[in-house]
Amino acid sequence: MDRDALAEFLLRRREALRPADVGLPSGPRRRTSGLRREEVAQLATMSTDYYTRLEQRRGPQPSVQILSSLARALRLTEDERDYLFRLCGHSAPDRAPLTEYVRPGILRVLDRLHDTPAFVVSLLDEVLVQNDASRALVGDSTALTGLDRSGIYRWFAHPDVERRRYREVDHPRQARALVGALRAAHGVMGPRSRAGEIVEALSARSPEFVELWEAHVVSRRFEQHKVMVHPELGEIEVDCQALFSEDESQALIVLTAAPGSESAGKLEFLRVLGTQRV
């Protein structure tokens, strides 16, 4: 691990960013030319003390998970991310279709979406990053681990919990859409991948999944209109728009409601309230 080069690299990348670049307010009279250390730490979901030690050349070797968070927080390109990993003694991540790395272009769009729920998902319906409005509507999905990170897996493995977000009448349609998306991802990634692992795990525990999987429906699309069910505010009608990355391995999902509608009022209420309970 090259601590000197790591410290310089982190400092230069931090100085090159402005608060507006990452969706933060500028505020009055900033002493630093770029982001503050505490702002980078906040974006990377780590302690300010830990990040400070990295810049001061006295931190421990960061894990792959920490480096992925730093790459996202500093809006690194793939080449810059690979360089960061190598500085810390790790191999550069595989640039496969399934990756935790979120493209800077998609992040820049997400950074500017504060008033409406928005999140980025992978081929396997794993939420990679989401804004506060999204957390208020559907909860924090980024902290999940293992196969539970996949919304496809959770739909069939934990139906009593996962399906509460949708009306019962919409469950069959949502199940078909998720299996169609998994079939498409499986075709891209192959059987010896996380997609294959999900198929194997669900085949062993969900007859409903097996029946849908054997229908060989292949489709990766998002319903343009859906009804979400909030545990305290009830039904919220939203329009769903998807912006795909260049290689279509990730999608930015934006949920909006018709202006002046009851659902728009509920989304505004959630935005103001945040993740507090009603």
Describe the structure.
This is Helix-turn-helix transcriptional regulator. The protein is 44% helix and 12% strand. The protein folds into 2 domains: 85 residues, 434 Repressor (Amino-terminal Domain); 170 residues, Beta-Lactamase (2-Layer Sandwich). A 5-stranded antiparallel beta sheet has the order 2-1-5-4-3. It starts with a helix and ends in a 5-residue tail after the last helix. The longest helix is centred in the middle third of the chain and has 19 residues.
Give the SSE string.
Answer: HHHHHHEEHHHHHHEEEH
Tally of individual helices: 13
Instruction: Please give the oligomerization state of what you see.
Output: single chain
CATH 2nd-level architecture of the largest domain: 2-Layer Sandwich
Strand arrangement within the widest β-sheet reads 2-1-5-4-3
What is the fold-level CATH name, i.e. the topology of the largest domain?
Answer: Beta-Lactamase
Structural shape: globular
Share in helix: 40-55%
Q: What's the end-to-end separation, in Å?
A: 48 Å
User: Would you tell me the structural class of the helices and strands?
Assistant: alpha+beta
Supply Rg.
20 Å
Major beta sheet, specifics?
A: 5 strands, antiparallel
Mean pLDDT equals: 86
Strand content: 5-15%
DSSP strand count: 5
Give the low-pLDDT segments. Answer: none
CATH top level assignment of the largest domain: Alpha Beta
Pfam family, one: MLTR_LBD
Protein name: Helix-turn-helix transcriptional regulator
Domain HTH cro/C1-type: 34-81
